Fold this protein.
Amino acid sequence: MQRLQAFKYELIPTGDEQRQMRRFAGSCRVVFNEALALQKKRYERGEKRLGYAGLCKELTAWRNGAPLPSGRTAAWLADAPVHPLQQTLKDLERAYAHFFAKRAAFPCFKKKGRSGDSFRYPDPKQVRLDQGNSRIFLPKLGWLRYRNSREVLGTVKNVTVSLNGGKWFISIQTERDVTEPKRPATSMVGIDMGIIRFATLSDGRFIEPLNSFKKHQQRLARYQRAMSRKQKFSNNWKKARARVQRIHTRIGNARRDFLHKTTTQISQNHAIVCLEDLQVRNMSQSAAGTTEKPGRTVRAKSGLNKSILDQGWFEFRRQSGSFNIQSAQGLVQHVHHRFCRVVQRGDGYDYNWTLLHPALNHGVAEAEDH
């Protein structure tokens, strides 16, 4: 069967290469914003929305010096490679499709430094990969070195360059033929998410939480206080903001690494995984209330929300269902909360939930929530 997989590496660019990549990412951001402004103006005038082909014609005119919808000219767009600019228009077209399908909100304008600087090369014929020398050739950038941590498998389909936490990364999507994996394990397990214990398995084992945000919380607060004392948008303020961003990046990287390893281990040891269908967004809502109806126990609820979000429950569910388990020919079953129940034990209540879903005919799995 065919498998699409992305391999992500950290780039090692020179100063000139970094400036070029920032210019290309800025050009893509300008094209996205101007195309969105054009679509809004056409809607206000009662005209039909332009498709991808129509926007490409407008892009060609902009690159040749025609005025943008904002009134200015941007002939410097011709300095950037045309394919990443066209891919930006495809991203806008996809954003409109998601909006009309009620899968996402209306597209919004991108802001420098907040929307994520990135651009994509869709044509593999323009990309040359030299794994032996840990370098890759991209149009109008030349040969770029990268940290070759693992081998790229398959045929290159497209390449995405992105900026995250002050570092540039490259993601190489490939396609290759793989044999269908054989599932050695045949067991089923139920998993209950918690705070003190990240996950409790129905076979009695449990997984301790990482708490990456909690470990860096004091250090992060110290750097945030230092940033608040700086004059906004000054050079010292930008340096302080970069330090805060590096801490947030370290927290996110540690959490993702923990979740990847955890879901991989579970997928290798179990054929069927049952997860409680938790509504994380509703569970982590603020309890502050309004001026007319102020909330109660706001501080306690705020601490609970912080702990829930620090665990990464939603990302754990996404990784379990989208790649790690299903790619290994496993099955992920989300159990609605109405099939769970609270059981009384001794002097108090123990938050045991029992899987009673009719689709599961493999017995009863229990897990504890702490």
Remarks:
- Residues 341-370 have pLDDT under 50 and may be disordered.
- Residues 229 and 237 are 8 Å apart (CA to CA).
- The two ends are 42 Å apart (CA to CA).
- DSSP finds eight helices and 16 strands in the chain.
